[in-house]
Structure formats: structure tokens, C-alpha cells
Amino acid sequence: MSELKPCPFCGCGKGNLYIVTVEERGFDTVGIFCNGCKQTVILEENEWEGDNESSRRKAIEAWNRRANDDSD
User: Fold this and answer.
1) CA atoms within 13 A on the CB side of 26
2) What pTM, to 2 d.p., does this model score?
């Protein structure tokens, strides 16, 4: 599993970022939560698969994606 990049909102890194299960409209999905600024990034509705390895990988990829990152 890929390592999480620091929070794009506040810059917090390891020890402050958590993979969490989020209930969204009655369905479980996965998101990344920053304990520093309390931001949460969750998967798009069409990517929901529940709390499983695939969803966790997609959530990490979404968290790590940056608008100014040319490597995507």
C-alpha cells in the first residue's frame, strides 16, 4: 500500500493521517482523515466498494493526488 503524502490543506504528515470508514448516504466507503485540520477526503460515489483493500488503495491515491503534481 502506498504511503500517504502530507495533508494538502495543513501539511500534517505521519501520525496525524488516518484511513477511516465513512458512512455516506447509507453506504460505507473509505476516506483519509487529517487529525491536524480535520479535513476528510472520501472516494467519489462511483468508486464506493465498501471498506476493503481496493477502496483503501483508491482513497490513498485520491489523497496523494495534487493539482500541481505532474506525475499523475
Assistant:
1) 0
2) 0.73
